[in-house]
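Entry for the shared binder. Reason: the reviewer on the internal report wants the predicted structure included alongside the sequence.
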Amino acid sequence: MAKKVAVIGAGVMGHGIAQAFASSGFETTLIDKRPKALKTALGRIRDNLSTLVGLKVMGAGDAKSTLRRIATTTRLAEGVAGAVFIQETIPEDLRLKRNLFETLDEIGGEAILGSNAATIPIREIAAGMKARKRIIGAHWVSPPYLVRVVEVIPSRWTAPDVTQQTRAFLRRAGKVCVVCRDIPGKIILRIQFAMLNEAIHLLEIGAASAEDIDAAVRLSTGLKMSVFGPLKGTDFTSTHQNVLNGMTFLYNATGDKKYRPSRLLKNNVKSGRLGIWTGKGWYDYAEDYKTLARQRDRILIKAVAMLGQIGDLGQFGARKITSAPAGD
């Protein structure tokens, strides 16, 4: 018998998470006190599945099976009954989340209680709860039925076996789990917002147009990050000495603390951990640069070819912008 999961909240994240669980074989109940929201969510799931079938990512039979595994209800107690994992996706409001988890504390049985909180520390949700050992952050990324990564955030009270079980549930749902300490913003938002705020600043001062800023990032840093991520990408792109020199230059030129080189980067340079060129950087490398670069290039060539096939997504759904606003 398939294990049951419950997803609370039928919004953009909730319906996609329910779809992801159901398509992976979980009997899934989507819960929302608004009947109209549940109806809308089911319509969106049908549209998503239709798109996946049309793109030959999923078979028609699998799409029908996914839909059959999704039940809906407006009654919280009915929806969570028998669930082994409960995922909340309600608005990012501590009071609302505390109220919900206080109720789940009473009616949730022995289920793991996962929160999709992106900015709120999990410890603030779990504090004082009898079930605090079973409360854990499980932060998905939109669209959750396509994006593979989920941040797993144990609080100071989360039991180690709960973290392990959560990772197992998410892996079964086809996700890659990244575990993060219970810090504000976790991993993804902190890096995403740091980049976003700088992009907005560049637009604000008239450094470039919105379309040129987006193109510069998605066709360079964005493309390479999809292969390696920022740390391993740095190991391959340049030596850590050059990175340190570049950050120091920007820090001196702008006075902006976000460019001040970290102590860890300076220590790497001092100890000779300069990247793939020395066989060690943020990672230790058993293979030489030539072998690993060939693997990187094979992935990048396929990615660039795919971008060429689908056209310029930079203009997707947007009117052309010809100039940046005047700066300060």
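Summary line for the report: The chain has two domains: 4-179, 192-239+274-315.
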